[in-house]
């Protein structure tokens, strides 16, 4: 009723109207108003309006169909003195329990149980002598000034954004120009190869044509000589006969050589890798909003080196009744829907969990799964030896869609910018989404598990690797250059690594869960130890709940609720 102008409601024995007839109210009657005079600034019922109209025929009167205009017809002071919830009622009371200005309708509906209802004239005595009252105009003027300054700052920001747009546009055009130059050079080189090959074949064809012309003339001369010499002496005829035989033999030999090649042809096999690489890249670069907050508005979580502390630890069972072995959770990722997909190595199962970590569905895989990563939308990819199995998680169900095969082991995977980052245990490769190798990014063959798991920062510029054999966290740039290698007493046999969109980095080791700085150079906090989980293997930070979900050699997930410190 508070938001509706047209309705009236019954509360106990009181009939409450949004707008009451002013003359009736003055005479002690409670009558609903159906008209409003903009000149008199008064409300009238059906009976009273006829008397008003008889006296003031030229006044502008609004009916119920224009009820939304009644409030706007009031002056500023009238509006201030009217109830915001019930515009037809004047503010006459104060609720001390809620420190709220009220009209009689407010009290009847929302404040019946309140014990401190005061009449405004009683609490308003001496208000004009109050220092805070006297400072109100100055405070309002200051706020007006601040809004004007804020408006100017926003206008300047609008102008700067336009300049930024133009600068980034120029940078994009420069990138496009460089790409065009590269493509032009590729085209030029390819055409040069084509022209060289065509020229070489044309030389061979010209030689064959010249040979044919030469032999045709020599054979014609031989026929003429044979016809002449055949009528002369036997000796001359014999010589002509022998030379003709030699020429016939030579001609047959040349014909065999030439006719061995029916024709020369050139084919073209397009390099599809170029198209695939360009198709996988959706933009020329990451366009990110950089909101510069004031000191008061700055979110500590936006700092990638902000240190978390633990609020609580909770465990959730993910073992199913038909699981043959104890769960071995080796991979975890979160879906956009808030559901989770986990890889259970021991039972060779991929499980879909709801946001309460209850198993919704599962999918058997043909081999032991080593990792799972989110690709895009509802799609995840599961590492199974030398294959990557793609699974769609939709409406609480897991459905296998396709798979990619590699010529090497695939024990960990990450996805960024339309490309796959695949670890073989000793090497980190970059592949297209169709499974074609783009490049080898990093290699260390001094052990068998030098590249265990990987995680990529949101901007794609930093890559984190766990080195299981050397007890290290390795940090690379996106060209594969090593930026740092972190060792610490708490980093023993590191497995899982995760980086949040804000840049917070978490690592799980043989019996610890750690937070490290974004540069991968120092440990910031130890968030869990052996008493919380025996052997952590994989972890994922859920931004929606500010929780670390940790899996390992147990039938339960450890959910670590994190808080700011």
Describe this structure in words.
- By secondary structure, the chain is α+β, with helices and mostly antiparallel strands.
- The chain folds into three domains: 9-125, no CATH class; 135-269; 301-564, TolB, C-terminal domain (Neuraminidase, 6 Propeller).
- 30% of the residues lie in helices and 29% in strands.
- A four-stranded antiparallel sheet has the order 9-32-31-30, with no helix packed on it.
- Strand 19 and strand 20 form a beta hairpin.
- The longest helix has 99 residues, at 131-229.
- The protein is elongated, with a radius of gyration of 43 Å.
Concise structural overview:
This protein is about 30% helix and about 30% strand. It has about 575 residues and is α+β, with helices and mostly antiparallel strands.
Morphology call:
elongated
The CATH architecture designation of the largest domain is 6 Propeller
Strand content: 25-35%
Secondary structure tally: strands? 32
Structural class: alpha+beta
* Overall tally of domains: 3
The largest β sheet comes out as: 4 strands, antiparallel
State the separation between the terminal residues, measured CA to CA: 45 Å
Helical amount: 25-40%
Helix segment count?
Answer: 9
Uncertain spans, ≥5 residues at pLDDT below 50? 1-14
What order do the helices and strands come in, and which of them pair?
Elements (H helix, E strand, L loop, with lengths): L8 E3 L2 E3 L5 H5 L8 E3 L4 E3 L1 H10 L5 E2 L5 H5 L3 H5 L12 E3 L4 E3 L1 H7 L6 E3 H4 L7 H99 L4 H26 L12 H9 L27 E10 L11 E6 L5 E5 L4 E5 L5 E6 L6 E6 L2 E6 L2 E8 L2 E9 L6 E5 L2 E5 L3 E5 L5 E7 L10 E3 L5 E6 L4 E6 L4 E5 L10 E3 L5 E4 L4 E4 L6 E6 L7 E7 L4 E6 L3 E9 L1
